[in-house]
Amino acid sequence: MGYSLIRGGYYQPLAIVPLIYFSLWTMTYFHENYAEPSDRLTLEHAMELDKKVEIVEQATTRQKRKEMNCPIPKDTFSKDHYKQPVLTEKHGYPLFYRMGKEDELTLKARDRLGVGARSDLWMGYEINQGSSGDLSEKDEKMIV
Which domain of life is it from (predicted)? Predict the structure, then answer.
């Protein structure tokens, strides 16, 4: 605002003045409606909420809660929300070293990934196809 006055602008500061009051009002609103209530969730209140949720869970089925649009946290909870995103993704398949040319190592790795031995590729183990899925240790270098 001061810069506009120094540069000779008289109408620009008039347009900016309402933003100051809007910013102050917004900060007060957020503080009253979000910051203060977040400090007041006591253990007793949390226990009351848990009891109410338990009553709703016992009284209705998951399908009925879905129809009534009244989900409880247990209905929508997913363990994947607390994992690193990389750990929740499906594994990918390696691409060939050269475009359009198949190479032996990539085909071998793809075969092993199809068997489900993804972690075994990096640990120096190989799955014996003849036995009941036992792991046998190969020589001490990693299989890549």
Answer: Eukaryota
